[in-house]
Design goal:
Radius of gyration: 25 Å
Helix content: 40-55%
Distance between the termini: 37 Å
Largest sheet: 5 strands, mixed
Bound molecules: 2',3'-dideoxycytidine 5'-triphosphate, magnesium ion
Strand content: 5-15%
Shape: globular
Length: 548
């Protein structure tokens, strides 16, 4: 897998004939039935012929001959199942692939129809098909202590994220670069408690970061490295992230190589880069990393719902521009991706705080007109007081003590917002609108304002008993959340958007995996969660770790 990734392949967790370009067979005992089964087909002849099944030798020989993957000979001796090569004519392949695509498309459509029920007839906005539904299980990625918004494309993303959370806290805990010991619950929790980011009301230096120019350059480099496939760039991205975190937390200007080397997470090579930035104001490595493929992958990753693997796969298919994605016959875009392309510039633009506030001031009364007892609050960067916002995050709940809940409210609210011209496109609908815990993603705009841009909007609904956990989680910021989750785990708790749980049993070798979910011990208010974790209550504006 490492070799494949290094040579530009993207690995996908689930077989999708619209996405998969090759199936590589590495085990000698891997029969055609087994492979077909893995791909979700009854027999090998159902696998689209346009997707070759090749032996591992294809990779090994291609690499040893020093050729680029697109020049590797995909025929003859490398075909894993010779019976497939006999029918491997191009027209046959495209017909087969087209059939497979239409079957998949039909399946997706049927599933969506099932989910949409009466919603479809009443909504005027564009209903997106092909987008995975945002169901409660999807939001519960944080269950395992990982971010809920990790790259769903990447089968290993949640593990990287969990590891990043742990390592981030190591940086905050001032551990040395070489110390690889696990600061897990076996260590004295009190000792760690004093060093968690969430314990510090001002996690960054007061009065701004004296090394902001270095942070900016390394962040640019990090963004470029993040667009490259494979474990090696991921490792480098991790190294740069650690260095950036250390620099952000450092109260003094770095002046020398030795100063830089003393920072947690900074080795010789990163220290040299820091010195280059100090001495020249720039970093040659940025030019080197900013290759055409990286620029294109970055462009594609700006499309809503597109992760690194999909972006890389599109690049490998010869696409270079957003226009190419619309015209290339090999690319099948989901409706959400089409919307993402149509409003690419709007969605990638941050909105002024005032615009987010104005939209919320329109939305809240509409929600309260449905049920005045609703709890409706704007979350995310807005609640933290940020001057600009990437999107609008709105949390909805309702105190059930009068016997009523917010069940069904989200659907009604969305219908009214569509009618009011505020919500304009849907990107991901909840699996079941009747659930109390739900998540909706879409686009909105200020109606009756000429030229107003499309903005991303998320609605989250939670049961009242989980309101505190949800408020805490959706307020962020992400690093503050990580820090609280990690502190919770060192104290034997588990924290997610539903609240704080005790009695969680973790796999000793992979602490991100829970063997027993435990019981919720604090969840209705933010204050009780802070208290249980022995952290002084921090109002939202003190939960800021990003200083840009
Ligand atoms: N969140 C998190 N970890 C992530 C992403 C999000 O803990 N990886 C939480 C914290 C913020 C909240 O979800 C809303 O997420 P975003 O809208 O992505 O972030 P934001 O802080 O509101 O920033 P932006 O202004 O970019 O929307
Ligand atoms: Mg936000």
């Amino acid at each position: 897998m490492t070799l494949l990734l290094r040579h530009g392949a993207s690995l996908v967790p689930v077989f999708d004939p619209n996405v998969v370009t090759h199936i590589i067979i590495s085990g000698r005992d891997c029969g055609s039935g087994k492979v077909a089964d893995k791909a979700g087909y009854k027999k090998m002849s159902d696998v689209p012929l346009s997707i070759p099944t090749l032996t591992w030798d294809w990779i090994a020989d291609g690499i040893s001959f020093g050729k680029m993957p697109e020049h590797w000979d995909a025929g003859g001796k490398y075909i894993a199942f010779p019976e497939r090569s006999q029918r491997n004519s191009k027209s046959d392949a495209s017909v087969s692939n087209a059939n497979a695509r239409s079957t998949i498309a039909k399946k997706v459509q049927t599933n969506l129809e099932r989910r949409k029920y009466r919603w479809a007839n009443t909504s005027k906005a564009t209903v997106v098909s092909g987008t995975p539904p945002i169901v409660p299980e999807a939001i519960s990625g944080a269950e395992s202590g990982v971010s809920v918004q990790c790259d769903k494309d990447d089968p290993l993303a949640e593990f990287y994220e969990a590891a990043a959370a742990e390592h981030f806290e190591r940086v905050s805990a001032r551990e040395s670069d070489d110390d690889d010991s696990d600061p897990g619950p076996s260590k004295n929790a009190k000792k760690f408690a004093a060093q968690f980011t969430c314990d510090n009301p001002h996690p960054g230096p007061v009065g701004g970061c004296p090394n902001q120019d270095i942070v900016d350059q390394l962040s640019t480099l990090l963004d470029l490295v993040k667009c490259q496939p494979g474990p090696e760039p991921r490792q480098r991205a991790y190294t740069y992230s650690r260095a950036i975190s250390s620099l952000r937390a450092h109260p003094k200007r770095i002046k020398s190589f030795e100063d830089a080397k003393r920072l947690p997470g900074v080795g010789e090579r990163t220290a040299s880069k820091i010195m280059e930035i100090i001495q020249t104001g720039g970093l040659e490595r940025i030019k080197h990393e900013n290759s055409e493929s990286v620029q294109v992958v970055k462009l594609f990753q700006g499309i809503y719902g597109v992760g690194q693997n999909t972006a890389q796969m599109w690049y490998n298919n010869g696409c270079r521009t957003l226009e190419d994605l619309k015209t290339n016959p090999r690319i099948v875009l989901s409706d959400a991706q089409k919307v993402g392309i149509q409003f690419y510039d709007d969605i990638n633009d941050r909105m002024p705080r005032a615009e987010a506030g104005a939209l919320f001031e329109l939305i809240k009364p509409i929600a309260l007109s449905i049920d005045p007892a609703l709890f409706v609050e704007i979350m995310g960067s807005y609640r933290r007081g940020k001057a600009d916002c990437g999107d609008i995050d709105i949390l909805i709940s309702r105190d059930p003590s009068d016997g009523r809940t917010h069940e069904g409210i989200l659907q009604e609210l969305l219908e009214r917002l569509v009618q009011a011209g505020i919500v304009t496109e849907h990107l991901a609908l909840p699996g079941d609108f009747e659930d109390l815990e739900n998540c909706y993603r879409g686009l909105c705009r200020l109606p009756n304002v000429a030229g107003s841009k499309r903005r991303r909007i998320d609605f989250l609904t939670v049961p009242w008993k989980n309101k505190g956990g949800a408020l805490l989680y959706y307020t962020g910021d992400d690093i503050f959340n990580r820090s609280m989750r990690y502190k919770a785990s060192t104290m034997g708790f588990s924290l997610n958007q539903r609240g704080l749980s005790a009695g969680v049993v973790r796999d000793p070798s992979r602490r991100s995996i829970k063997l027993n979910k435990g019981n919720i011990v604090a969840s209705e208010t933010e204050e009780e969660i802070f208290k249980m974790l022995n952290i002084k209550y921090r109002p939202p504006h003190e939960r800021v770790t990003h200083f840009k």
